[in-house]
Amino acid sequence: MIKTLYVRVVLTFLVTIVIALLGATLLGFVVFERELNDLQHNEMRVAGENIVRAYEAAEVNDLDRFMGSVGPLTSYPIRVYDDAGNMKSYLGANRPDQAAIPPEAVRQVLNGEVYQADAKNDEVFIGLPFRHQARPYALFLLSSSKNEGTIVSLFLTVLLFALLIGSLCILFAAGYLVKPLKALTKATKRLAKGDFDVAVRVKRKDEIGALAQSFNEMAFELKQVETMRRDFVSNVSHELQSPLTSISGFAKAIKDDKLVTEPNRNRYLDIIVAESERLSRLSDNLLKLASLESEHHPFELSTFHLDEQLRQVVVACEPQWSAKRIRMDLRLPAAVNITADADQLRQVWMNLIGNSMKFTPEGGRIAVRLTEERGVLTVAVSDTGPGIAAEERDRIFERFYKTDRSRSGGGSGLGLAIVKKIVVLHHGDIEVRSEAGQGTTMTVTLPVMPPSP
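Given the sequence above, the corresponding C-alpha cells read:
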C-alpha cells in the first residue's frame, strides 16, 4: 500500500503522462493517417516513374536483369506482371513480399492505366504501366516497412525521452509540493505534544501557503488559550488556597484548648465562617460564569421597569453604603421598560454598585443614572474612588484580575467578567472611564428590546 503523499504524487503524474502521451500518439496517427498515406503514395509514384523513365532511356533488352539492379536502389519492394499473368518480385533489403494485389488492379495497369490503392486498404501500393518488346507490363511499388519502422521508432524515441524528462521534472516538482506539507506534519506533531511555540515558515501565496498561514494562526490562538488556561488554574488555585489555609489553620488551633482561649475561639470560628462563605461565593461565581459561557444557560426574557430594579438594588445595599456614610445620588426617570432577563441584569447592577461601594472611601459619593434614547438604555454608575490606571483599564474584565489586590476586600476578581458576559448576552456593551485618583464610571448600554434570534 502506498502511504506517502510524495510517492502518490509522483505515480499519479507518471501515469498521467504515459496515458497522455500514448493517447496523443494514437490520435496523431488517426488524424494524420490520410496525409501520411498520400505522402507515401506520392513518393512511391515518383519512384515508379523514375524507374520507368530510366528503363525507357536505357533501351533495356534484359528486363529481369534491369529490375534486379534497380530494386536495391529503392526502399520499396517491386513487382512486375506481364500480359500472361506471370509475376516477378524484386525485394532488395526489405521485408518479404506478402502483400496481395487484386487481379483487377493488375488488369487495369496492363491496360495502360495508373492504379493507386485506396487509402482505406491496409496495403499501400501503386501500379504504373510500361512496355517491353512491344508487350504490356505492370510495375507495382509496395509500401516499405523501412519507412514505417523509422516513423514508429522516431515516435517511440520521442515518447521515451518525454517520459524520462517528465519523470525527472515530476520528482523535483513533487518534492517542492510535498516539502511544506512535511513541515506542517512536523509542526502538527509538536503542537499535539503541547509545544505551542511553533510556526511554519512557508513563503507561498497558493493554497498551501494559505494552509500554513491558517496553521500559524491556529497555533497562536491555541497558545493564547493555553496561557489563559494556565492563568485560570493558577488563579483558581490561589483563590482557593488562601481561605483553605485560613480554615485549616484556625480549625487546628481551635482543637488545641491550650493554645486558644474562649474569647479567641469565637473569633476564630467567625473567621472560619467568613472564609467558608468566601469559598462559597467563589465556587458560585465560577459556576455562574461557566454557565453563562455555555450554550445551554437559561435565558428568560420578561418586560419590567428597569428604574424600579435599580432602586431595589440600591435599597438592598443600603447597610453597606450607609455604614461608610456614602452619599447615594440616583437620577432614574419613572417607568422605563426593558425586555431582558431580570435576574441576570440584577446581578450586573449588584456587581457594579458593590464594586463602587468597595472602593469609594468613607464620606464619598456614588451616582446611578439612567437615560433612554432611540430605543437604547444607558446606565452609568460613577464613584469617587481611587480610579483605575490607564494600563489596567483594558484588563479589568478578565477573570481573576484585580486592580489592587491589597484593597480587594476578599473579592475573587470574577464579578466584572460575569458583568461583561451578561451584557454581551443581552446584545449590549459596557465601557469604563477612569483616571487614577479621579474616580470611575461604568457605563452599560442595552437595547430596550433584544433583537430576534
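The chain has eleven helices and twelve strands. Try to locate this feature in the C-alpha cell string yourself.
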